[in-house]
Amino acid sequence: MTTPNKTPPGADPKQLERTGTVREIGSQAVWSLSSCKPGFGVDQLRDDNLETYWQSDGSQPHLVNIQFRRKTTVKTLCIYADYKSDESYTPSKISVRVGNNFHNLQEIRQLELVEPSGWIHVPLTDNHKKPTRTFMIQIAVLANHQNGRDTHMRQIKIYTPVEESSIAESQLFFL
């Protein structure tokens, strides 16, 4: 019997931003949660501090809903998880869904995480590596390690590709 390999951590998403090919757009969205313990909500999920976290408070699935005011191009979702700190609160199965609203969400990725420690990069692209255009992203925690009930997520970042033309224009500005 083989044990599944641990989920390898991805690079710090700030390194992605430094390449100039993507930018973080989470601040452009309205965030909501299926539940949270007081003091462990959206603010902690988005505060750029890996020591803080969202903690759910209810039955599964635990949901993070990210809604944009206009149809938005999204390329990558980054989630920070830390099994060593969170143990049974650490997600082990996550579904990522996109759509126009709550009523037409379609699952585009399902992840099985094994004792994750670090950033998990989730491509939000089609089979041709083309970014997704959507009004809404929903992250559903379907299961936790050790059959834990509530979940912890430490950070979530959403990235859009930087268009070639805007890079060229910004370089012209400095000439």
Automatic annotation (TrEMBL):
**DOC domain boundaries:** 1-175
A GO biological process this protein is involved in?
A: protein K11-linked ubiquitination
**Which key words are in the record?**
Cell cycle, Cell division, Mitosis, Ubl conjugation pathway
Q: Tell me which Pfam families the record gives.
A: ANAPC10
Record SUPFAM superfamilies: Galactose-binding domain-like
An annotated GO cellular component of this protein is: anaphase-promoting complex
Check the record and name the SMART domains matching this protein: APC10
Q: What does this protein do?
A: Component of the anaphase promoting complex/cyclosome (APC/C), a cell cycle-regulated E3 ubiquitin-protein ligase complex that controls progression through mitosis and the G1 phase of the cell cycle.
Q: Which family does it belong to?
A: Belongs to the APC10 family.
Subunit structure and binding partners: The mammalian APC/C is composed at least of 14 distinct subunits ANAPC1, ANAPC2, CDC27/APC3, ANAPC4, ANAPC5, CDC16/APC6, ANAPC7, CDC23/APC8, ANAPC10, ANAPC11, CDC26/APC12, ANAPC13, ANAPC15 and ANAPC16 that assemble into a complex of at least 19 chains with a combined molecular mass of around 1.2 MDa; APC/C interacts with FZR1 and FBXO5. The C-terminus of APC10 binds to CDC27/APC3. Interacts with PIWIL1; interaction only takes place when PIWIL1 binds piRNA. Interacts with FBXO43; the interaction is direct.
Q: Could you identify this protein by its name?
A: Anaphase-promoting complex subunit 10
Q: Which organism is it from?
A: Delphinapterus leucas (Beluga whale)
* Lineage, top ranks: Eukaryota, Metazoa, Chordata, Craniata, Vertebrata
Instruction: From the UniProt record, report the name of the gene that encodes this protein.
Output: ANAPC10
